Amino acid sequence: MATSGFKHLVVVKFKEDAKVDEILKGLENLVSQIDSVKSFEWGEDNESHEMLRQGFTHAFSMTFENKDAYVSFTSHPLHVEFSAAFTAVIDKIVVMDFTVAAVKSPVVAP
User: What pTM was estimated for this model as a whole?
Assistant: First the structure.
């Protein structure tokens, strides 16, 4: 099993008055300005049963070349600034940061 970068996975439940669209645009803007982010994906859960979801609504995943690139990202001034706004609208959060164990890589279309 090969390693394939470093992941920052965030699962959240936003506060009821959160302007989620603005947060999403801010996140997309943030990752587009910081080169250490290799990829960024997000999604809103609309398929899971509530008891499995436990109130969480959105998931965000960022991939970095390695842990050092992730650490560089977390200390970047734009991330520090955005984190304050992001944290202010979060009701519940789970964060996981880990080295990726690549079992089956995505298939790249020819």
Answer: 0.85
